[in-house]
Predict the 3D structure of the following.
Amino acid sequence: MLAFILRRLGTMLATMVCLTMVVFFMVNLDPNLKKLAISQLDMRTPADQLESWLVKNGYRENFLVRYGQWIGVVKKQPNIDAATGEAKPRFAFCNEPAEPHYGGILQGNFGCSTKFKTTVSAKLWPGLGATGILMFWVMATMVPIALLIGILAGMREGTRLDRTLSVASIATTATPEYVSGVIFTVIFATWLGWLNGSAASATSQGVTFYNFTLPVMTMAVYGIGYIARMTRASMVEVMTQQYIRTARLKGLSFSSVVIKHALRNALIAPFTVIMLQFPWLLTGVVIVETMFRYQGFGFTLVEAAGNNDIDLLLGCSLVSVFVVLFTQLISDIGYAYLNPRIRVQ
């Protein structure tokens, strides 16, 4: 198992390097750099001055050099004032040293946010923490309900209960988050009147029913159906196995057979599906957080993309890649642990 984990970690590292290199290349395409220069200067700035700003701030250096600087294996060079010859930091609001230095991902420096005039870490980690809280409550709501629905439907295959729960699961999975969000807003704001102006007062300093509870409900409803369907299929398959029939013939009660024999084996496949919900949640929050103005990771990512904030966008991309690969690793390890038939060579 240890050798398997080490191999997967090596593969994970290589994949991260390849994916971040692709993202770094796409984000630093010439149109994006010109938009960045315009946002930092002025729309009426001549093209030669825009080019001069990009050159002065190191955006016209060799691609591999810039990628190495971002990673932290190549030294960053300060700006040199053409008039005085004095070395100055690229961005004064990040407190970068006015001398060659290593300041990349490996040193814990994610760069400077040109939109928010601060370090990327100052925007990225608080937003990620807020999204982590949101994701925790989504999972705490979604997983128990989905497992209960799937188990009940699988235990009563072909009955009216099974058909009702299956139809409800398919309906929730087929409804996108932005549609569910609008429906919940209409229900609680227009019909029930529960919001009471909380939508207008939703800020990063306050958690309200509108900007927290409704996002949790929106994302949980979408994921419940998928997990419930997978749990039902796994439960149906397990309930037809020979050892289940043997247990019933021995006189064990139906509830005892389900709890002691069927349930653990039926949860092997849903475990993988549940772990893979984390990457989906990380992408789903982009829509939901923007819709409900929840100041989390998704909201930060949209702000970075909309304002050509290159370093902040790269930081968000790195976190996304890490979460996807890490959850897949945990999923594989957990599957091998839960299923004794799996032998890792």
Summary: Residues 16-119 form one domain. Strands lie at 79-80, 87-88, 112-113, 118-119. Residues 199-205 have pLDDT under 50 and may be disordered. The chain has two domains: 16-119, 121-338.
